[in-house]
Amino acid sequence: MNNHGGAASVHADQDVYGTPLVQLMGGRAPDLFRHVSPDGENHEADLMLVNMWIPLQQVVAPLVLADGQTIDRRRHQLRYGLPTTSFLERDEDLAINDIWSFLHDDAQQWYFRSEMDHRTAWVFNTLSTPHGAGVLPGEDLAARCVRALEEAELAIGRGDAAALVEAGTGVAGASILEDVPAPLRAAIERMLNLCELVAGNPAGTLGEGAGEWLAAAAAARRLVVRMSLELRLVVSVTD
Q1: In whole angstroms, how far apart are CA 1 and each of 60, 88, 119, 182, 218?
Q2: I want to staple 124 with a disulfide (CB 3.0 to 4.6 A). Which of 6, 54, 129, 199 is the partner?
Q3: pTM value?
Q4: Statement: residue 85 has pLDDT above 80
Q5: 239 CB-near residues (< 8 Å, 6+ apart)
Q6: Mean of per-residue pLDDT scores for the chain
Q7: Cα–Cα distance, 21 to 93 (Å, whole number)
């Protein structure tokens, strides 16, 4: 809704010692919330600031989370000032959001589930959990398929059989790597089948079958659009 796409960099959403928490809570956030930071930690507080991330659809760019116990906080966790003016309405003194960025290390362990949908959610510590949008094997082929379908749709709109065949043959017969996750594999196969259909039968696709093919192509392209809901919650926790 705010044109804020999947985060390309690994981050944690809030520095417990920074903006806006320091302004909103008068510097009390480190004492009130559980957190792990390079310069302090709190495992005893009764409150936690959490993200609830509900993947409506994450066939591509799934949320990937780190095992915090594999992160060397002092070496790999870095402060970062994130400008928010493009997607949040804030007062000037709150416009730079203090978050965390993380350096990569081979000892870190990361987790994701590409098959998640709206029936499940991730809940994680806003102040401490490294996360970001992952890049899966097969996403490059999925992008090529999307472009091929879009070109084919335009060719149908013009009634251009030659352009329609060219769009379909651009990816027709492409091979899918073995390590592509099952949900993404199914989405790619669906798009490839539609491309092969227009390449092999352009006259039929331009004729009576145009409406059916266009609807199927639009539905197939929607399968590889990352969609999610994210909520910020304050929760009470007990051991």
Answers
A1: 19, 11, 21, 28, 20
A2: 129
A3: 0.84
A4: no
A5: none
A6: 91
A7: 12
